[in-house]
Amino acid sequence: MGKKSEGKKAATLPVDIGISNDDRQAIANGLSRLLADTYTLYLKTHNFHWNVTGPMFQTLHLLFETQYNELALAVDLIAERIRALGFPAPGSYSAYAKLTSIEEADGIPSATEMIQQLVIGQETVVRTARALFPIVDAASDEPTADLLTQRMQIHEKNAWMLRSLLES
């Protein structure tokens, strides 16, 4: 057995996946915004799950739980894609606050206001994902394009389902 090198840092291999460093950085920056939006929406949805009241309590409590569980899985997928591109994923409240486009809720809104805010949040995530497509397409980054397509499909469906609760 060879000696372990003490005090020496292991050499890091450069990321060589056929996408330039500049494009990978731009994509990682966009994915960081998507991660921040997704995590912020997760927190908001979880908060509403805990605090919803009224005649639709059971329906909304379960719907919000389904949606926040899906969001919790999504943040991992997005962060792992950022890492696969060779960049650190943001992971703090302060970083997310700087990157997100989703507004926090003030106080405890009514059930109807919760639904409205979550529709806006779901659609905001869709817009954040959609805005990243030009650079992803130009870089031929199919794995990120696939991730974005899946995220958009889920958020568009969630927005539709939430909006349907508001129609009479």
Any overview of this molecule?
Belongs to the Dps family. It comes from Synechococcus elongatus PCC 11801. GO terms for molecular function: ferric iron binding; oxidoreductase activity, acting on metal ions. This is Dps family protein. By secondary structure, the chain is an all-alpha fold. It is about 70% helix and about 0% strand. The chain is elongated, with a radius of gyration of 19 Å.
Short overview:
GO terms for molecular function: ferric iron binding; oxidoreductase activity, acting on metal ions. The chain is mainly α. The chain contains five helices and no strands.
Keywords for this entry:
oxidoreductase activity, acting on metal ions; mainly alpha; DPS_DNA-bd; ferric iron binding; elongated; 168 residues; 0% strand; 5 helices; Dps family protein
Helix proportion = over 70%
Strand content: under 5%
The largest sheet is: none
Instruction: List unreliable stretches of 5+ residues.
Output: none
Give the structural class: mainly alpha
How many beta-strand segments?
A: 0
Helical run tally: 5
* Global shape: elongated
Please provide the ordered H/E string of secondary-structure elements. HHHHH
Radius of gyration: 19 Å
Oligomer: single chain
Distance separating the two termini? 74 Å
Mean pLDDT: 93
GO molecular function: ferric iron binding; oxidoreductase activity, acting on metal ions
Protein name: Dps family protein
Family: Belongs to the Dps family.
Domain Ferritin/DPS: 30-167
